[in-house]
Amino acid sequence: MEVKGKIKLINSTKEYGANGFKKRELVIETNEDYPQNLLIEFVQDKCSVLDNYKNNDNVIISINLRGREWENAEGEIKYFNSLQGWKISKDNGIQVDETPVLTPPSHPVLENDNGGDLPF
């Protein structure tokens, strides 16, 4: 999946726990009639892909949708979703029309066409 929009916020990389889990969050505002502010997280070695970006950059982000189940102390099951980014690139605003161009077939030229009667 891809998301297009303008970067509103890039947080610094945070490290969690003794195992060295790293996460960096980004907020993007989508380019839609009703813009959405989406929190996208980059984890582990993907944190560094945000180093060359700043607020107000127009970008295209490749994401995966992640979901988790969690049970609280009372036994109630909760579900959580997150958007996990794995690739980001600047959006230069150029749209490529991927509609194939159809050309009419050419008519064969008959060698002995004298413009006369048909042979049947």
Describe the structure.
The protein has one domain: Beta Barrel (OB fold (Dihydrolipoamide Acetyltransferase, E2P)), CATH 2.40.50.140. It is 0% helix and 48% strand. The chain is built from no helices and six strands. A hairpin with a 4-residue loop joins strand 2 (14-16) and strand 3.
Total of DSSP H or I helical runs spanning 4+ residues: 0
Strand content is: over 45%
SSE order, one letter for each helix or strand: EEEEEE
Total number of domains: 1
- Indicate the CATH class: Mainly Beta
Q: In CATH, what is the homologous superfamily?
A: Nucleic acid-binding proteins
Shape: globular
Binned, the helix content reads under 10%
Structural class determined from secondary elements: mainly beta
What is CATH's topology name? OB fold (Dihydrolipoamide Acetyltransferase, E2P)
Q: What's the story with the biggest beta sheet?
A: 5 strands, mixed, barrel
Radius of gyration: 27 Å
Number of strands: 6
**What is the name of the CATH architecture?**
Beta Barrel
Distance between the termini: 60 Å
Q: Averaged pLDDT, please?
A: 85
The residue ranges in which pLDDT falls below 50 over 5 or more consecutive positions are: none
Task: Provide the spatial order of strands within the biggest beta sheet.
Answer: 1-3-4-6-5
